[in-house]
Amino acid sequence: MKTYSILATILSLLATMSRPALAQTVSAAQWSGQITYEVVRKVDPNSMRIIINGEQVKPGDPNFPADIPDTRTFSQKLLVAGNFAKVNRDEEGMVVRVGLGGGGAAPQTTNMGRPFEEQVFLDLNGQKAITILTIGKDKEAKNYRAETPLQRASDWQLTDQTKKIAGFTCRKATIPFRKETYTVWFTTELPFTYSPIQELTPEAGAVLLIESSREQFRATKVSTSAVDAKDVQPVTTAETVTAAQLADLRQKAAADFRQQLMMGERN
Fold this sequence. Notes:
With 267 residues, this protein is an alpha+beta fold. The protein has one domain: outer membrane lipoprotein receptor (LolB), chain A (Clam), CATH 2.50.20. The protein has 2 helices and 16 strands. The strands form 2 sheets. A 12-stranded mixed beta sheet has the order 11-12-13-14-15-1-4-5-8-9-10-16, with helices on one face. A hairpin with a 2-residue loop joins strand 12 and strand 13. It starts with a helix and ends with a helix. The relative contact order is 0.17. The N terminus is likely disordered.
């Protein structure tokens, strides 16, 4: 009887010890929270559109601003609720108008807003991105939707090197991408697969650091919190278009916006 009693006690203790570990196991469908990234990107003056007194100026022009910084730093957040996520970025793609000050005064800059609004949602389970492009304001606004499947870069070189990033153990990999070698650090301690650069998404795991000579994405905080599922799912009323059609719509909206700015300056 004593043997059975001792055995029962041991089994009971083992069962009790195992419960916390089971309780801590969270599936992708249950995880809710956000990852905050600090993004540092080199500024390419040739890709900038700067309008001075109604005219677009390019590098080499005497009026082209000389105080443009070499890099730009901004924040990017990934909101996750179950199998869906949304990418929130600082304001990008804004047009800035520069007016030359008279009498040697410093140039005056004005933020003219953006030619369109763009939101990126992710189907983490289906491994695809859903982009919602909004052109126009208020009652004249029209939404377009395009879906693109995840396309991974090839020739990943996994290493045994690891380090902690934002509290998670990450493994290092290198990948040839955009004519150079990118370094990616990813963790499998989060229950979903994601990368802030879509092509640099691992087969399994969340990327917390990307490094290259031109840009860096570093996760500064990973937090679990309640995220409303409605906030990470795209509207269903948008007109469905192809990715190529969405690119054409984006380009046309930007061109129309620049033309309106220049015409406004001349009037």
